[in-house]
Amino acid sequence: MLTPIICRMKVSAPRIAAAAQPGQFLIVRADEKGERIPLTISDFDRKEGTVTIVTQKIGASTADIIAYEAGESFADVVGPLGVASEFVEMAPEKLAQQRYVLIAGGLGTAPVYPQAKWLKEHGVPVDVIIGAKTKDLLIYVDEMREVCDNLFICTDDGSFGFKGMGTNMLEHVVSEGHRYTQAVIIGPMIMMKFTTLTCKKLGIPAIVSLNTLMVDGTGMCGACRVSVGGKTRFACVEGPEFDGYEVDFDEAMRRQGQYKAEEAATNEHHVCKIGRGK
Amino acid sequence: MANRIPRVAVREQDPKVRATNFEEVCYGYNREEAMLEASRCLHCKNPRCVGACPVNIQIPEFIAKLNEGDVEGAAAVIAADSSLPAVCGRVCPQETQCEGSCVLGVKGEPVAIGKLERFVADETLGKASAAVAPANGVKVAVVGSGPAGLACASDLAKWGYDVTIFEALHKAGGVLEYGIPEFRLPKDKVLKHEIEEVKRLGVKIETDVIIGKTVTIDTLMDQEGFKAVFIGSGAGLPKFMNIPGENLCGVFSANEFLTRNNLMKAWREDYMTPIHAGKKVCVVGGGNVAMDAARTALRLGAEVHIIYRRTEAELPARKEEVHHAIEEGIIFDMLTNPVEVLGDEKGWVRALKCIRMELGEPDESGRRSPVPVEGSEFEIETEVVIMALGTSPNPMISKATAGLETNRRGCLVADEKGATTRPGVFAGGDAVTGAATVILAMGAGRTAAKAIDEYLRQ
What is the ipTM of this complex? Predict the structure, then answer.
């Protein structure tokens, strides 16, 4: 457990580990009656054949996952899904000119980690900003320090690091003279919306990773559709990363909450039959 | 004499009752009814029904066995050509295939071949009947566990090949599992057993493997020792209308709606899957998928309208499905085409703005094409809009596989035997033709199985 409600686990999945790239995700299903839950890949070890995922307790299905003990297994793990981060396929001469800033909000810190790791390994300058509500919700701080040039941490309540949000931190860092050619923002939809606005103000291109609703994750259902530059795109197969300047965040946030009423009803009625409590 | 007996009617669940449950609509024949219906077959010397069946089941032969009271014998005749008889007896469009070419149909009613197939299959469900040749140790990979993949894998396994099916979802069956609802094709009672039978032939099924993502065709062939690959990945990508408001909350693809309900069992209280049908639903489209989505929404408690731009005569759905839908109380709004989805202040669907249509000149398909009536726009208030406009093949595999060509519609290019532009890789079913029927996909799977066998013997 990284925090009381955030849990990190290593999953043995040799085929997925062999194919995974930064920016991709996978889908897990806790048991026969559970939902298919998309989770970003926060690390992978090709030799060991494992992928690491980080989950936060949100609804009944994620609560079931969090309650897992080491050695238990998912009913299903499928992936890697989505397109790898842009830099993975970038021409070396173009990559050599980049200076990245990765901005993580809350649970978004986990998928930022493999991106920073990849960039560091390929000698690309990379700074990371981690933002969280409070000190207790910070994750991956020590690990991240190892894989970036500068790590900046901020908390909304000032209980650790800079007091303020990721947007304030970014403005502060840039005002101190740090320069970036590209930002990657991963976090809650609302955080990505406002951080994109800040990037726009500062003239930094911004990529965001959208955690939309999904069923299959292979382009079949269309639940994940988002408007990007006025066009409908499927986050599962064409994303999850898109140009933040072009994303219609308000629509994306509304669509994300589409099943809130049904889920609230499920949570209320959900009586755990296998002794995991609520 | 024989043709004086009228076609035996099949018993069905009462429309009012079935509109509130997910149990199967059609009860099928009992033994007595099946024997009576079987006696109607004239056993033509040149049976046209066999040629009209995409997998060429020896229809008069199995009916003859049935006449003798030999149900197992009848099952064995069918099993030689079809691995999914209980499925096909339920979902095949017999009226345009076997039954459509039955001689009895010229003056009266054709033999109810589909219902007889279903009777034989149901009676012998789970009792093995197909013979398997000794193993030859040659590995063949099949991508997708839908009708095309299951048919191809079954034939290859019967001939002794070591076949592994790779399925992207967590359950085998493809469209039979995620697309066709329980009330038309019961999953545990019927589908599960037919898939078990395919496994009994020696076919291995690996779920949760997405070819093109988890592993590529190159890896399968170069590193995992597969000598040939059959792609039966179907047509999984939903089409939308590209009209304003289509991304409002409450607009779903039929694929999403049906997958939630069928594969993810949202209709069952004990599953966690959420689904939103609301009080009123408009389903746009007129095919079998539109009927399935509409009848599903009805069973979840909504008032359901089918919005279709032509008239009832042009509905592409099977007559039986349309008939069932009408009986159950689905409202058909014909000659109506949506132009915009209107939302409320919270971003949810409020109404569907439509325009009246009229039929104009016939187009190249021979159907009269619908033309909008100018100034006839009107609103239908609704909570949910389900788009059932057809599907196209998923580009995931073609994108990840060098040398695999697709056409303009995104379908894999394959010759009449199923050979793609890449040696050793074959394809068939919706992935090649675009969305079609279960039985055509099975036919294509069998054709490709033959071609794979020939290719591997070279």
Answer: 0.88
